[in-house]
Amino acid sequence: MHPPIFFDPLFVANVILGYLVTVLGAVILLVAGAWWSWASDSSQQSPRSGVWRGLCVAGWSMFVAGWIWQIVGYINTNTVTWTP
Fold this sequence. Notes:
Elements: H1 9-43, H2 50-76
């Protein structure tokens, strides 16, 4: 049986969407890594194009933003509290 928290729209908006942003950032970084590998093998030089750097910045930013979104979401939904 699924926990009822996954059916709560507040939890979905605050935590699961942050998780999806994190996964999307990881996929973008994976694409950038594959691009780096392919371009380095074919040219024997580092692919330092502006598009590649932008892809890396976008992937890393989305990955970190997704983590922050999830942490804030857990606090907003009172799933995690920091008081002893």
